[in-house]
Design brief:
alpha+beta, four-stranded antiparallel β-sheet, binds flavin mononucleotide
Length: 209
């Protein structure tokens, strides 16, 4: 499938065929698309939880508007946004900076200062602001995973329809450290894809010369 074909194939799948499972190799490909996604300042402020436990999925569904995608999908990915680890230059951020073997030690030092100034200057240690910033990166990873899946003929549905506090609780998250950004089930459609509605290109795009 070429790229635009994959974009057109992808739709918010409302129910999956429970008898069809994604192969391990194809699911690795989807995860890899998420892992390779871009992130603000390259901090990859996400973690991917793959929830295959049926009882846990039932509990997630119960706090997610009872959406059937959650229990019928082949693979359920919950993307977690980092909070504490990107609050300032702690162990995680330092590791992310230091891994750059291509950078000289003085550049690494400069970067640590830049990251510290950026993180504290922009978010001032406010968990809510940091969570929203991290979440934006999680959405980019989610989008790439969904398009990657579509390129293989695999369906998905981005899910934001959940009670955030309840879901964080069910997953046993310490919300000062991590919070759920978005839930993405993957699998195979049970029903035909509905017509796609989008604004016209001329309405969406404005050119400035
Ligand atoms: C961030 C986000 C959250 C969404 N949450 C839900 C959801 O909880 N349940 C659902 O069925 N669809 C959800 N959707 C799907 C949208 O309703 C859907 O993408 C949109 O109506 C366009 O339809 P299409 O994706 O099928 O082309 C969400 C989409 C996005 C981008």
């Amino acid at each position: 499938m070429n790229f635009l074909e994959a974009m057109k194939f992808r739709h918010a799948c409302k129910i999956f065929d429970e008898n069809k499972k994604i192969s391990a190799g194809e699911f690795d490909f989807i995860l890899e698309a998420g892992r390779l996604s871009p992130s603000s300042t390259g901090l990859e402020q996400w973690d991917f939880l793959v929830v295959q436990n049926p009882q846990l999925r039932q509990k997630i569904r119960a706090v997610s508007w009872d959406q059937p995608q959650i229990t019928t999908c082949s693979h359920l990915v919950v993307i977690l946004a980092k909070v504490a680890e990107v609050k300032g230059v702690g162990k995680y951020v330092e590791k992310m900076i230091k891994r750059r073997e291509d950078k000289a030690p003085d550049i690494i030092g400069d970067r640590k200062k830049f990251y510290g100034d950026f993180l504290t200057g922009r978010f001032g240690g406010n968990d809510e602001l940091i969570y929203h910033w991290s979440s934006k990166q999680c959405y980019i990873a989610a989008a790439n995973m969904m398009t990657a899946a579509a390129s293989l003929g695999i369906d998905s549905c981005p899910i934001e329809g959940f009670d955030e506090a309840a879901l964080n609780g069910i997953l046993g998250l310490d919300t000062s450290k991590q919070r759920v950004a978005i839930v993405v089930p993957f699998g195979y459609r049970l029903k035909p894809q509905p017509k796609k509605y989008r604004r016209e290109i001329n309405d969406v795009v404005k050119w400035i010369y």
